[in-house]
Amino acid sequence: MPRGRRLIACALAALSAGCGTVKQTGTARTATEQILLTNAWDQALASVDFSPLAGVPVFIDTQYIKGTIDEGWLVSSLRQAMLSQGVLIRSKPEQALWILEPRVGAYGTDSYNWLLGVPQTTVPVTLGGLPAGTIPEIPIIKKSHQQGIAKLALFAYDRASGQLVWRSGTQLAMADAKDVYVGGVGPVQSGSIRQRDKRVGINVPMISDPTPRLVAPSTPGAAPPLADKPQEPPDLPGASLKLPPSTADLDAFAP
Predict the structure, then answer these.
(1) Residue 181 contacts by C-beta under 8 Å, 6 or more apart in sequence?
(2) What does each C-alpha distance from 126 to 39, 130, 135 come to in angstroms?
(3) CA 130 centroid distance within chain
(4) pLDDT at 14
(5) C-alpha distances in angstroms, 46 versus 82, 88, 136, 237?
(6) Fewest C-beta atoms under 10 Å: which of 29, 35, 153, 172?
(7) How confident is the model at residue 16 (pLDDT cuts 50, 70, 90)?
(8) pTM for this entry
(9) pLDDT of 163
């Protein structure tokens, strides 16, 4: 074989040896949806003040959040928030002085889409002279807006007497993600779950509003916090403490 042909053959062999494929898969839920929901939950949970429960042995009754999507994240993040504020979590009800009961009023996503242009159209067979089929969408400006919403409330009661001792009030929070296409170019991404807006992978200045957070109104006339704790401000969001445990009670449940 002439030398030139041998070089060409070697080059083709080298190129063919360098070919490969990338396997791509899709999960049942998109990452965006999961981040929207867990971010909304984290923001709502961050509005809860657990300091009145600090130093008290507490059992978390999770029966009213079982079956919720991302249940593991909800329970674990709740435990972390309580532990970080000094609450003593117990694994069994009989080991606790108080029982904490969380509940979820809303945990889901909403989606809104807006289009300026020609929507996708199906041409029926009945129109003479025109072939049947589908005309694809021709957008001039297209926008999609997704929201994750979480609503939660918690309260605690004395295990022995069943008396209400604390409540968080209702906490509502939202997280959002936006995608905008202009003339087929995009998406320009924005929203509270994205640190910076992005246009086809390039960071651009932020155009989204700060993450909204709705906090329950304060409850007037809340009882004083636990003994040996600094006095809380009178407008503590939704907090109410009616039955501070005695020192003897706490000693009985000390690990």
Answers:
(1) 139, 141, 142, 143, 187, 188
(2) 50, 9, 16
(3) 48
(4) 55
(5) 10, 18, 45, 12
(6) 29
(7) low
(8) 0.67
(9) 97
